[in-house]
Amino acid sequence: MTITMLCNRGRRARQAACHAVLLTMVFGAVSPLAAAQTLRVGVYHNPPKLFTDDQGQLRGVLGELLTAMALKEQWQLESVPCDFQQCLTLLEQDDIDLLPDLAWSEERAQRFAFHAEPVMHSWSQLYQPSDSRVEAILDLEQQRVAVVEGSIQQSYLMTVTQRFDIDVMWLPVDSFAAGFQAVALGDADLVASNHLFGDWRANDYGLRETPIIFQPSRLFYAASPGLDAHILERIDATLVEWKNDAASTYYETLSAWRAHSLPAPLAPRWLYGGWVAC
Prior knowledge:
Strand order of the largest sheet: 5-10-6-9-7-8
Number of helices: 10
Mean pLDDT: 85
CATH topology of the largest domain: D-Maltodextrin-Binding Protein, domain 2
Strand content: 15-25%
CATH class of the largest domain: Alpha Beta
Helix content: 25-40%
Distance between the termini: 68 Å
Radius of gyration: 24 Å
CATH superfamily of the largest domain: Periplasmic binding protein-like II
């Protein structure tokens, strides 16, 4: 006896249940539209913006905002730990879907997909030991500068110092924390960092900021070239919605991490006269 015949012989409730089973057999157990989409997220250690906790959950400003978006959109997030340069490679090769906390540049726009609305704004700064007196780019002559390999800080500083024929000894590192540690141990004289990490941790390493501020930047969730464009559209829509609501998850998260971001760019207005790709 077929399932169809069984359905036709029972009561109305049983018939309805049987017909539901038939639909499941025809169209699958779960509609593809209803199934939660899994997104592989590259995570490099860059607190307070991005890192993972002991359970592998996304933390930091951009990590927690993405987690809130995933809950709203019914996405499943799979954390993929990697150092910064490895994360870029994995993203370009479609081995991860998203990389939070990536500054936009023309070169990166050729390799990755970006949504339109920045998650937040930042800028870069050089940090030095408390007894050092580096005050301008020209003071970098014969200095050992720690920079994250593949970062916008590295590319920008190398370009500027070459332009002014400044001889700098570069120390590539795989994270801002490693760069700060190198200066604290005496292996480097200065370290380049975004101001969020620098202001958060400089004192812990016995360092202080220099007056050298550069590269106002817009931070995004960069996507692999093959990611469905609808994901980026939803990220944009959510960011715009949150930024228009002073009581939203966006501002709650920023406040919790003491980022105090506003819808307007965070960087001082005078910096934008010398805007460069970031």
